[in-house]
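About this split. The held-out portion is used to measure sequence recovery: a designer receives only the structure tokens and must propose an amino acid at every position. Recovery is the fraction of positions where the proposal matches the reference. Here is one held-out target exactly as it appears in the evaluation file.
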């Protein structure tokens, strides 16, 4: 039996190299008691200046309500990942504060970060294993998550036998086993081909429609933002500021053909125009 410390060490070895963080580290000491009722993530007057002199964020005020799915779009380098890391409590603002009402948080990276020698099932069980859930509960949760992301029948396969989209599903399932109240996703589908990406969007919004977690989702794709979210935040170029905040009024679950709806196309056009002006 490999202990918790060893798994963390193994995970740290395989984590994305550009991420100075770990999935299991929460150092958010912001006082959640100050949060307005029904607000799960709250950023107030947030500014971030890195030691290198880069001013990444400037005066961000953002409240995310319980059960909302918020997509954040903005030019590259405008501080989206920095803001998401702050929401997870993995980065501190220079000025202002970020509070999170729960420590039940799942963070999904752009890369699936699977352990190559572990089967799909064993990878999905990893979070529950680190959380020291009993074996039978681990199994049951992993199977529910595997079914939820459509990977039944692939439990015994190794990551190298899977396509990119399937690996991303495993990553999603691994996070779902901890049944997080908040899901923070940093461009999780950025590396996928267009058709797989559309499938993953459908899958994720179906999961959201079922579970109603609170979501904060970073993306460069405007149509992905409109399809998934009930609210889209548009940020300016660095230092990032919020330049638009739109409600997306489509009920869930959403049909993939919604993307051809005239109203959907209008949302995409409006956000794209705002982004053009925000560079
Ligand atoms: N640890 C760090 N030290 C110094 N500068 C940093 C650090 N992390 C991020 N930055 C800088 O802060 C700015 C915002 O970075 P961030 O990763 O948040 O952008 P982003 O909006 O997520 O970009 P992208 O869309 O390309 O992922 C960038 O200029 C980046 O170089
Ligand atoms: Mg980023």
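Reference sequence for scoring:
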């Amino acid at each position: 039996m490999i202990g918790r410390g060893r798994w963390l060490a193994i995970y740290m070895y395989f984590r994305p190299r550009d991420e100075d963080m770990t999935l299991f580290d929460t150092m958010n000491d912001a006082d959640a008691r100050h949060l307005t009722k029904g607000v799960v993530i709250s950023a107030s007057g947030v500014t971030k200046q890195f030691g290198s002199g880069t001013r990444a964020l400037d005066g961000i005020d953002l409240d995310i309500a319980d059960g909302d799915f918020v997509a954040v779009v903005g030019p590259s380098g405008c501080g989206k990942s920095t803001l998401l890391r702050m929401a997870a409590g993995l980065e501190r603002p220079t000025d202002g504060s970020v509070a999170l009402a729960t420590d039940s948080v799942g963070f999904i990276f752009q890369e699936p970060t699977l352990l190559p020698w572990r089967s799909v099932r064993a990878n999905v069980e990893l979070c529950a294993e680190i959380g020291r859930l009993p074996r039978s509960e681990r199994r049951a949760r992993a199977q529910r998550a595997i079914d939820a992301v459509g990977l039944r029948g692939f439990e015994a396969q190794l990551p190298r036998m899977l396509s990119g989209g399937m690996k991303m599903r495993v990553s999603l399932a691994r996070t779902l086993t901890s049944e997080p109240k908040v899901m923070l996703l940093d461009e999780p589908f950025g590396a996928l081909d267009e058709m797989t990406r559309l499938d993953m969007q459908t899958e994720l919004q179906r999961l959201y429609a079922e579970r109603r977690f609170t979501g904060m989702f970073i993306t460069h794709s405007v149509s992905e933002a409109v399809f998934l979210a009930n609210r889209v935040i548009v940020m300016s170029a660095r230092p990032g500021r919020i330049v638009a905040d739109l409600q997306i009024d489509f009920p869930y679950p959403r049909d993939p053909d919604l993307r051809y709806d005239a109203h959907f196309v209008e949302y995409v056009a409006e956000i794209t125009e705002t982004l053009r002006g925000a560079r």
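Annotator remark: Residues 194-211 form the longest helix (18 residues).
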